[in-house]
């Protein structure tokens, strides 16, 4: 040891310095990465992803942080390793040519080694030291050093040398990752955790109900705060992504901007505006009530606003959804072609809940949507318990709210207790809850929609009938009568009845009108006849007056004639009087 | 026995173990392989790049390159019998 080259390394005092791993999510959990200049032990069962973890640590270091790294493989040959990680898009050959990484395969074959007497592992130290110095490595991986135990017999020497190896790595100032196979009752078979006291990460690969879930836990991290939970992680074609359980503090930004639900009538119910941006909406209902249609309509509206929508389908395939929505007048294909809408379909049973969550996270980070739809969340219960699903959703909602992404879940309500619990469980998390209920009446089934809650919004408390037509979705007012709520054909019938009533009423009015005019005519004619009667009476009267006047005139004439004749004789006067009396 | 033994002894500086190993090796060779061996001592402190080629971990390591098969004997070579077995001079006793 004393003879190997030493680099002066100033140990950090106070807060320990950390090295970013570049592994998605891990740096969040460890609050900054692995302890810099110190060894970290990654242990786990066979196939838990130790090698991949460590190679990603090296590759990301070389690519993203300009920290060259040594990968010392005790298990896999360099070529095998290169082939294995090529599927993740890591071109180790290229990196090696650029002197950014170096892969050193340490081969130990017990069959060709004979041990006799005292020895030490100075050869390994020299080799490692030489490799580190040759590319100026800042990162070192030993995968897995326990293989030494199968190659060499003298355990006493090995243990002493491994202890010395860690000291050597520290003195070199490299951030090292040592992998170890998990033992029966200890973290590693050979008790490596005794030697690495700074940071120990445990990888786990569990199969529960035939569904596998990978988890990661930081067993210890000396001198640093770290997440203590088990974090799910995913290995896919882009390497490892760990899902940090985001801080469940309720201090997210909120938006008072609202976005349309895609159904104008529904927006009207929601305070004339729609949903708040960045809120979470639950649409629940029994089978066949049109939950997916509401979700698709929301997606459609989002895309029409030229925003991006990510649709997680756990029940139907994207093609099925597109076809079905076309039948109600929504062309989702158009949005898919434009790249505003993306479907992410997977069977819930494909992998465990946690893995789903990680996959959802990843897809969201990649697509950067404004709206996310999960249809339906209830299908996830097939792969996890109610409480697990709830935990998952809490985390998902939390993540989405921080990202200001609006999310709509659909949930199937069945008439059994377990699922009612889900409703309640989730409902306390969501901001708005639309409930679609079957209303069965008069031998037919209709849909009734109401808003169970909508936080921070003056929303309608009425049940609307939810109708699906070939032009889209709509909500219509239901009829409230003494017989109860009328929907569907009963509503139509009622409507018809009212219309008929109106016509009859109108007719009655017009009949009255006609009668009135007839009466007027009668009266008018009566007035006419009375007037003519009056005229004839008047004429009669006039005749008398005229005769009288004539008589008077004639009498006057006669009187003057008599006076002329008589010249004062009395007998003539009498004659005229008698004549008058006769008349 | 016309075979020539090409032996390489990897050491790291002149440590006591290395010196003991070289002395033991020379003794054994003189005794059993007189006239048909060559010993090359490689000091990894001087040529660290050579450690990878012969897959050297332990120090000291004796590598028998020729004749085949390649054999490695690690340690200070204090057990003569084991060294002879390792060099395929004595038949291997399966344990």
UniProtKB/TrEMBL annotation, chain A:
EC supergroup of this enzyme: transferase
Entries under CDD domains matching the protein: KaiC-N, KaiC_C
Membrane-spanning segments: none
Domain of life: Bacteria
InterPro entries named among the record's database cross-references: AAA+_ATPase (IPR003593), Circadian_clock_KaiC-rel (IPR051347), KaiC (IPR030665), KaiC-like_dom (IPR014774), KaiC_C (IPR047222), KaiC_dom (IPR010624), KaiC_N (IPR047221), P-loop_NTPase (IPR027417)
Single GO MF annotation: ATP binding
Keyword line: Coiled coil, Hydrolase, Kinase, Phosphoprotein, Repeat, Transferase
EC code(s) of this entry: 2.7.11.1
Family matches, as Pfam families: ATPase (PF06745)
Signal sequence region: none
Name recorded for this polypeptide: non-specific serine/threonine protein kinase
Gene3D superfamilies noted in UniProt: P-loop containing nucleotide triphosphate hydrolases
Species assigned in the record: Pedobacter miscanthi
Coiled coil ranges: 513-547
Record-annotated KaiC domain positions: 17-256, 257-489
């Amino acid at each position: 040891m004393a003879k190997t080259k030493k680099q002066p390394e100033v140990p950090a005092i106070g807060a320990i310095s950390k090295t970013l791993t570049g592994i998605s999510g891990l740096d969040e959990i460890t609050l900054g990465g692995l302890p810099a200049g110190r060894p970290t032990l990654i242990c786990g069962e066979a196939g838990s992803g130790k090698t991949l973890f460590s190679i990603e640590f090296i590759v990301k270091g070389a690519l993203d942080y300009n920290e060259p790294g040594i990968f010392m493989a005790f298990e896999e040959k360099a070529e095998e390793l290169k082939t294995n990680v090529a599927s993740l898009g890591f071109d180790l050959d290229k990196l090696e040519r650029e002197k950014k990484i170096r892969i050193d395969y340490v081969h130990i074959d017990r069959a060709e080694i004979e041990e006799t007497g005292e020895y030490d592992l100075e050869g390994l130290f020299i080799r490692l030291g030489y490799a580190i110095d040759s590319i100026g490595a800042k990162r070192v991986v030993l995968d897995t050093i326990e293989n030494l135990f199968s190659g060499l017999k003298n355990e006493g020497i090995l243990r002493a040398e491994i202890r010395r190896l860690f000291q050597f790595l520290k003195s070199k100032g490299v951030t090292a990752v040592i992998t170890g196979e998990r033992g029966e009752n200890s973290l590693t078979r050979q008790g490596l955790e005794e030697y690495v006291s700074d940071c120990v990460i445990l990888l786990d690969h569990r199969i529960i109900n035939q569904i596998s879930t990978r988890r990661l836990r930081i067993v210890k991290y000396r001198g640093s705060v770290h997440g203590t939970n088990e974090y799910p992680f995913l290995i896919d074609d882009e390497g490892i992504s760990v899902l940090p359980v985001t801080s469940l503090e309720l201090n997210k930004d909120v938006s008072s901007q609202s976005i349309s639900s895609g159904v104008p009538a529904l927006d009207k119910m929601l305070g004339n505006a729609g949903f708040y941006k960045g809120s979470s909406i639950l649409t629940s209902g029994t089978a066949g009530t049109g939950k997916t249609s509401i979700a698709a309509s929301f997606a459609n509206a989002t895309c029409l606003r030229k925003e991006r929508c990510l649709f997680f389908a756990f029940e139907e395939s994207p093609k099925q959804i597109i076809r079905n929505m076309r039948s109600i007048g929504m062309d989702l294909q158009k949005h898919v072609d434009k790249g505003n809408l993306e479907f992410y379909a997977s069977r819930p049973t494909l992998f465990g809940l946690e893995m789903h969550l990680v996959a959802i996270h990843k897809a969201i980070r990649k697509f950067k949507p404004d709206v996310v739809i999960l249809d339906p969340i209830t299908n996830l219960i097939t792969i996890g318990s109610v409480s697990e699903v709830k935990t998952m959703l809490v985390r998902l909602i939390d993540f989405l709210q921080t990202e200001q992404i609006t999310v709509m879940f659909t949930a199937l309500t069945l008439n059994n207790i377990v699922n009612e619990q889900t409703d309640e469980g989730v409902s306390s998390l969501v901001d708005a809850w639309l409930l679609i209920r079957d209303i069965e009446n008069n031998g037919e089934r209709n849909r009734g929609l109401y808003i169970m809650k909508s936080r921070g919004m003056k929303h309608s408390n009425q049940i609307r009938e939810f109708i699906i037509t070939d032009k889209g979705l709509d909500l219509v007012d239901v009829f409230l009568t003494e017989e109860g709520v009328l929907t569907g054909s009963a509503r139509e019938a009622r409507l018809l009845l009212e219309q008929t009533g109106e016509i009859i009423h109108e007719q009655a009015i017009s009949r009255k009108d006609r009668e009135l005019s007839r009466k007027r005519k009668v009266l008018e004619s009566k007035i006419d006849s009375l007037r003519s009667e009056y005229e004839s009476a008047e004429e009669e009267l006039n005749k008398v007056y005229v005769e009288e006047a004539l008589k008077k005139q004639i009498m006057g004439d006669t009187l003057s004639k008599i006076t002329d004749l008589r010249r004062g004789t009395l007998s003539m006067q009498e004659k005229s009087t008698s004549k008058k009396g006769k008349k | 026995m016309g075979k020539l033994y090409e032996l390489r002894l990897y050491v790291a500086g002149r440590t006591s173990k290395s010196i003991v190993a070289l002395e033991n090796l020379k003794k054994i060779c003189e005794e059993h392989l007189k006239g048909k061996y060559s010993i090359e001592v490689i000091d990894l402190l001087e040529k660290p790049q050579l450690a990878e080629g012969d897959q050297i971990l332990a120090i000291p390591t004796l590598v028998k390159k020729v004749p085949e098969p390649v054999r490695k004997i690690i340690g200070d070579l204090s057990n003569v019998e084991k060294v002879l077995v390792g060099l395929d001079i004595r038949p291997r006793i399966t344990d």
